[in-house]
């Protein structure tokens, strides 16, 4: 018995003695938005395989699951920083969690880079929280341009999820731009987790909506689309980057054919950088299908963090955080990333259409 | 009695040491244990001692959290956070110290408890439980939609980090002292009589309704206090199901059942166990290094083990740890005596 | 650090307003009927268990969820045709309900009611966590499991138009085929249960147990078996309700049973807990009022779930035994 204990102790000590640089990855692996978390994790994992070292040491990714929950977002952030001693954090995924976990990062001076949180409050007045994606003020503009200019809709019904910061903000930017472009919008409300939208859809139809805009997450987008078609709404449906996962098609089926959405990246768009080509090749080799938006964002976030550590030249958290904010013209998969002094990245919006059960790249809207 | 007087400063010393020696992650858990203790003891007063099965505790905790948050946030922060609709007057220009905010939070929660208890206590047993559950959900849903008061789904962020070990355990002391003295008074005896046999108690002349309502309101008061502390521990509150919904009530229920339904010491122990287990079981979800092999943890394993343990305890050990008895110095001594007599 | 409020990017138009367009009202009534029929099926199971054991089986909604996952896997993994998968899934749900009773509720049959309630909550949690671990928390699609013809809409009225290159019917009142099926199934369940409870020996045993467990066991009835049967029957209905729900709302995830379960419970209480026709009536009324409330006041959509609880509390205050229930006599 004692021998076993000694062996275990030795193994344990030797394993933990391996020097490595710890980078935290706080993602929703379970819970309502687990689909995003898991795709981003795939990207991070892949990037870690392709670029496993920096400054001569191995990068160890510490994965923590925030269960799509705000309170857990805070707890896992604390755990990563204090227990695990990470030098930087990749995460979190949805804006409400990144905002919550961000306060912890700010307190402790640890860089937190979000792959996908688009709400402006995420980086507002913060020194340590940044993102590699565009933010909603721009996405809202792009979506509005898509709806009113490209598709020529009038009177759009916007389905707002009152439980999500992301949806509420996104919808508002859409509305602002819509007013500027001379279009009209009205809101229908729902809550995350609702499954029956027939009342809202019927109401929207009776108010003569020319298109639906759903700035929410894929579960509700798919269900709203199904019920809309069932209730006799044949006009265009538009969504935001919450739709950019295969589950949208799986759940929505035929109802989502012809749905357009704004997103960060599509594998079908021409590869701009070396990293982009490498990413698509490696992913297709490993998984046998084309990668999705969020996987690409996860990949990019890892690369940006690694690049920042390299430029900082040390594992000092403060230095890394500074280096992240100084990221300039980094050739990533989803575009050429420059992070400005507010922590935001200027990126283009890709418009993707769902056709015959597949994502098909349509066009790009540049800032 | 003397032993109790000695024990208290020693606990205080332990808490002080914990703050100095442990890292912030652990010391926050110790604070959380204090907060959970207040939640559990206040629920035990209602469910355990009075035998009134309330499922609405989360509602009162939420009320307490929001009230105190709205009072302690500075006007500028409120200006920044309330983006959908402006906060109503006079809340948008008030800022008061944490202590008073907590007390007011408790009072507001007590008022809610009164309003809810008055119509609901006419119902018996299960119906009462459902009614309180319903009210708790209604509170939460209203909080979700009243943008001009609670900021709706966006919730309140950047709550000042007032809660520390001293506030939490200090209030715990107050709560325990109050509930203990109540439990061992004639009022407490009446409550227990009602719990054992309602009709007989009524026949003896005890005003069942008044007693139960008082216990319910008192439970609500302390729930509100715990809410204030909890909100400032979390630093961000929102009316979502996970934070202030039925899940929270169930968690507190787990605490008091673990410790023993009807025992105040049990409630505190249950709270501590719950806090500890919640975090300790996290290792099941991350990659584990066993004999050099990396085993990927399974996400969600934590809740599974928790609920599994809970059901097993309910089946085999429904009395919980303490049953209905309280901690007493004599009891402790007799435990040791039994051990060493062998 | 100067905390200056940024120019507010939000200007929410508080959506008030009431819309009372008759055609939409009718459509929403139908929408509500469709939702209510599902609540009705699930409510029956709740009411049956409560009638016998005075236990609110919080795990009922989770058995509903499990049945859907069973059906999903029978089709995808075992490659069974959908009707076989459905029957098997319902059978498994019944078995699951029976097992839950055996393992978790039987040992505490004589414990105070609070313990039973708490255990039920624990079992509910356990089933949900189990589903998360085994099936992962990501919502899955149920769309491909059942023939799409079930999701067609019955359209009354409306006119043909050509839109976007396709001939479609615009307007009219629409009712999903699956909802019609659900209503029919609920009606069949009602008739079947009426026959079962009042015309068979086992049913009589159930009625006896619901009145007085101890006396009934003294009469030589195997009370545990009767209770187990009740659970099995109620769970089977939950399973059927679950599959029908998943056909209508083809999204499967571990917590999908939680809210429908609670609403079904409200419906059961509303209709009179312990009364099967009451459960059906309660379910239908709840579904209709819920949808119509949102239809008439779209701005109040966020309060939708609170509405169910409102009804619950009002009913409990005025007539705790519900619409069709009998008042409970407390014996001294």
From TrEMBL, chain A:
Annotated coiled-coil segments of the chain: none
Superkingdom of origin: Bacteria
InterPro entries in the record: BCAA_transport (IPR051010), Leu-bd (IPR028081), Peripla_BP_I (IPR028082)
Membrane-traversing stretches: none
Assigned keywords, A-Z: Signal
Name of the protein in its database record: ABC-type branched-chain amino acid transport system, periplasmic component
Pfam families: Peripla_BP_6
Signal sequence interval, chain numbering: 1-19
Family assignment from sequence similarity: Belongs to the leucine-binding protein family.
The organism's taxonomic lineage, starting at the top: Bacteria, Thermotogati, Thermotogota, Thermotogae, Kosmotogales
Start and end residues of each Leucine-binding protein domain: 20-357
UniProtKB/TrEMBL annotation, chain B:
This protein's record includes keyword Cytoplasm: no
GO cellular component: plasma membrane
Pfam families: BPD_transp_2
Bilayer topology annotation: Multi-pass membrane protein
Record localization: Cell membrane
This protein's UniProt keywords: Cell membrane, Membrane, Transmembrane, Transmembrane helix
Protein name: ABC-type branched-chain amino acid transport system, permease component
